[in-house]
Every structure is written in structure tokens, then in C-alpha cells.
């Protein structure tokens, strides 16, 4: 469903990502992990048509995002909050998104219910907590009943109950055949929800595959992550084994 091949992006002399390749399969939740500045955001922005790559391709359903006829029916995304104007109500925001993308009006109420915001549909977004804003962003992502979801830190601001809810939602979405690409800094949460992992460090993919394969030989996902991305950790680990 999602295929990235040889993606490279430079900002002047700085290389943000270099030869990044991976795939996200339908029916799977794929975790996208990396330290701050590793290239996650650059990759996701190119995938969603917000930036252009210097080399390589990023395809969703076989096409670049900019060539998708009905983008929100193909891929729903959540990057940097809900994107809603603070003076709009939740219902008004989703209604505008639906109209602009040819999505039936009935989906507004359905999407609000799916994320547990039906009781605040008439409230202004400016009064929402961070967690409520995340739920509204997810409602917009789900609005077109897309085949894929691309979510950047979707549990940010959610309380423990909300995190458990998000986990169940993503697993059910994948179980229904959807492809999910999710970035997060919460290792324990990623270990609970991800079927597959992509680990990026210094702009390059350093590991990818099923969760069990990436974490093999380590006591936890967190240990595997640091072993893959932190040169100091790797050096210390090597010394401890010598």
C-alpha cells in the first residue's frame, strides 16, 4: 500500500535523508522509529506531498500523493496536531474537510463518534485539550474511510485510557485490511501496537522488518532501538561483551 524507494532529501549542504526505502503492507501496523532529527518528519512530509524529494519515490497505492484523485479516500494523515482553526467547532471543521474532498456529510458525525468526540461536536477547537485535538486530527484522517493511515505521534497528549483506546483503534483498522504507518517516541507503546518496524538514524534506515526480528537478541524494543541508533550505546555494549 505504501512504498518508499531510494528517497533522498537535502537542505542546502545538509542531507536530511539518504536512500531511504521501506514498505508498509495492508493489514499491518508499521512503527517508524528514530531519534530527533533522524529524518522521520522529512520522510513523512515527502510521502504526503508536503515536500519534494531530491531523488527516489514515495508511493501510496502505486501513486505519488500529488497524483491521487481522492487523497482523503486513499490515505488519512495526522501531522502536527489537528490542523483546525481554533475558532471553528469540531463539527464545522470536519464538515469543511468533507465538503472540500467530496466526502458524504454523514461521515462527519460518524468520524466524531469513532474518536469519542460526539459530545463536544459543537464546541470550539480552541477550548480543546491537547488530547482532544489529537482525537479531532484522527477524526479528519478517518473521514474518507481511507485504505492507509499515516500518523505522527498520535498518542501525544492522550491519557492512559486514551492511549489504550488508540491502540485498539489502530489494531482494528489494520485487522480490517488497512495499512498503518505510525511514528512515536514511546517504545513501550510501539512494542504493544506495531507488527513491523522501520528504524531510521542519521537519515538512513538502519533496520526494518517484523517486530520480533528487529528486537531479536535484545531484552526490549528500547534496548534494540539504542543499540541500532546510538553509537555511544553500541560502543559501551561492545566493551561490556569484551
From TrEMBL:
Gene3D superfamilies: P-loop containing nucleotide triphosphate hydrolases. GO terms for molecular function: ATP binding. Coiled coil: none annotated. Residues 2-227 form the ABC transporter domain. InterPro entries: AAA+_ATPase, ABC_transporter-like_ATP-bd, P-loop_NTPase. Keywords: ATP-binding, Nucleotide-binding, Transport. It comes from the Bacteria. Belongs to the ABC transporter superfamily. This is ABC transporter ATP-binding protein. It comes from Nonomuraea purpurea.
